[in-house]
Amino acid sequence: MDWETVPIDLSGPVARVWAAVSGLYDLGPLDAVTVERLRADFVAEVRDITTPEGVVPRAFRIHLATARLGGPAGG
């Protein structure tokens, strides 16, 4: 088994970060009013961490495990 840590940087302008982050969830079943409320809440919550240049820092790491099937036993 191999392990790898991969950094993911979604930092950018508020609209782009919202598009990326909201795409991680299935918002399809929600009505437009609810999605807009979520977007407005997101914008309000990131206001304090948005840089003067308008960049919202959003980064995380994922850990990937890769397993390879071996050949027949004893082979």
Describe the structure.
With 75 residues, the chain is α+β, with helices and mostly antiparallel strands. The chain has 2 helices and 4 strands; from the N terminus they run ββααββ. The strands form 2 sheets. Strands 1-4 form a two-stranded antiparallel sheet. Strands 2-3 form a two-stranded antiparallel ribbon. α1 (14-22) crosses α2. It is elongated. It starts with a strand and ends in a 9-residue tail after the last strand.
Topology record:
Layout: E1 2-9, E2 12-13, H1 14-22, H2 32-46, E3 55-56, E4 59-66
Antiparallel strand pairs: 1-4, 2-3
Helix pairs in contact: 1-2
**Low-confidence segments:** none
Radius of gyration: 19 Å
N-end to C-end Cα span: 18 Å
Beta-strand level of the residues, as a percent range?
25-35%
Summary, kept brief:
The chain has helices at residues 14-22, 32-46, and strands at 2-9, 12-13, 55-56, 59-66.
List keywords for this structure.
two-stranded antiparallel sheet; single chain; 75 residues; alpha+beta; elongated
